[in-house]
From TrEMBL:
Name of the molecule in the record: SDR family oxidoreductase
Entries under InterPro entries matching the protein: NAD(P)-bd_dom_sf, Sc_DH/Rdtase_CS, SDR_fam
One Gene Ontology molecular-function label: oxidoreductase activity
Lineage per the UniProt record: Bacteria, Pseudomonadati, Bacteroidota, Flavobacteriia, Flavobacteriales
Similarity field: Belongs to the short-chain dehydrogenases/reductases (SDR) family.
GO cellular component, as recorded: membrane
Origin species: Kaistella carnis
Keywords: Membrane, Oxidoreductase, Transmembrane, Transmembrane helix
SUPFAM superfamilies, A to Z: NAD(P)-binding Rossmann-fold domains
Residues passing through the membrane, by range: 306-323
Keyword Hydrolase: no
Length: 332
């Protein structure tokens, strides 16, 4: 049963901290909380992106602060919290959102890049939680929102380090939910969205000749940002935020081997024979432009009806493959 003694139905004047807040989902979240009248504290590595997002929030009529932060550095995260407390005296909502990704054959990804993916994603979320929980306990209230990804429930082949961090973050979320179960007004929320139509893929590290665009069934980052606002108003422990994520979680639960093998085969086809497209992306350095919400799509965004048909077709195709595979196994 969810803790619902306090529901933040009115967010105006609340202070929210958002890590990775200068592009993609993070920028959409900054915009969404600003529209609710929150004081917004934005954390990211690059000053240019911070300035742009702070300006966006101020243009929406709220007070905003940008704090240069590398979430893989615990001292940086402590400084972020101190700056936020000096800003408005308290922290009401903390959004763990900063993340990086490296795709390619596991052995082709440099170990330094792989290590940094783990540091930014997993340790970054741990640092955020470790820093803000004592503040919430002193205040006797607070909400920690974690943008985990559906990758916390199903693995991502050829993004194995990234996938490992998402499983780890889900473990952190569920462990902390137990630890604060005696704190009725402190909430730990896990959000599990599908692939976002954000700049994340543009900024990611790519190896083994992988250079793919965002698929057409991706989700609008503003929809996920709206889910973050909803979670702040009415916190729940676990939220599968969109239809694609719900479908994939169910399908993976039913047909794990078929799903992982099909995805792996598709990615192998996407690999180019020459690795001259390899890039370290934003794993080790701050993101270059664009500091915006939306990324580049493989094809134009389909209508909601078309997306629904595509998802149903995907589910039916996987179900067909599963049945066919079972028949072959029985014949053997």
């Amino acid at each position: 049963m969810e803790n619902k003694d306090i529901q933040y139905r009115e967010l105006k004047g609340k202070t929210v901290v958002i890590t990775g807040g200068t592009s993609g989902v993070g920028r959409a979240a900054a915009e969404a909380f600003a529209l609710e009248g929150c004081n917004v504290v934005i954390a990211a590595r690059g000053q240019e992106g911070l300035d742009a997002t702070v300006s966006l929030c101020r243009d929406l009529g709220v007070v905003a602060l940008g704090v240069p932060t590398d979430v893989s550095n615990a001292d940086d995260v402590k400084n972020l919290a101190q700056q936020a407390l000096q800003f408005n005296g308290r922290i009401d909502i903390w959004v763990n959102n900063a993340g990086v990704m490296a795709s390619g054959k596991f052995e082709d990804i440099p170990v330094e890049t792989m290590d940094q993916v783990v540091k930014t994603n997993l340790l970054g979320f741990l640092h955020g939680a470790h820093t803000v929980l004592p503040i919430f306990k002193r205040q006797k209230e607070g909400i920690l929102i974690n943008n985990v990804s559906i990758g916390g429930w199903m693995p991502a082949p050829y993004s194995t380090a990234y996938s490992s961090t998402k499983f780890g973050i889900r473990g952190m979320v569920e462990g902390l939910q137990g630890e604060v179960s005696n704190e009725p007004n402190i909430h730990i929320v896990g959000l599990y969205p599908g692939i976002q139509r954000s700049t994340g893929n543009m900024h990611s590290a790519k190896y083994s000749g992988l250079d793919f665009k965002i698929p057409p069934f991706s989700v609008d980052p503003r929809e996920l940002a709206a889910q973050m606002v909803s979670a702040a108003k009415n916190p729940k422990k676990s939220i599968i935020t969109d239809g694609y994520a719900r479908m994939m979680k169910v399908l993976y639960g039913l047909f794990p081997e078929t799903i992982i093998n099909t995805a792996s085969a598709a990615l192998r086809l996407a690999m180019k024979p020459h690795a001259d497209t390899n890039t370290d992306g934003n794993v080790n350095t701050a993101s270059d432009d664009p500091h915006r919400i939306y990324g580049e799509l493989a094809i134009p965004v389909p209508s909601k009806r078309t997306k629904t048909v595509m998802m149903m077709a995907t589910g039916l195709a996987i179900g067909f493959l599963y049945v066919k595979s079972n028949k072959k196994n029985k014949k053997k």
